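Hey, does this match?
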Amino acid sequence: MIGVKAGVGQRDQTARMVETIEGWRCIGCGKVDAPRPCIGVCQDKRVELVLAEDYAELAWRVEQLEEALALIARVSPKPEKLDASWTALQARAHALLGS
């Protein structure tokens, strides 16, 4: 596994908040190995892992959705532009939702 390769801005900040480890994954069976030097007090604990690419994609999607919500929350269109603004927001939402 590799660290999250983020773009700029919020994605960089999000990536820094996530602990990543480097390891190896078998291309045949999927076994994951991330050995570290033992200091004699090791205990194995079950963990769930997510591929960094999957995480980065979801972090980007959340960022885009938050930007769209921020527009809705912070923008007050002029009354004569209300319909055009709403149509633009709907188009952005449809693009983000893939519908």
Observations:
- Helices lie at 10-16, 52-74, 82-97.
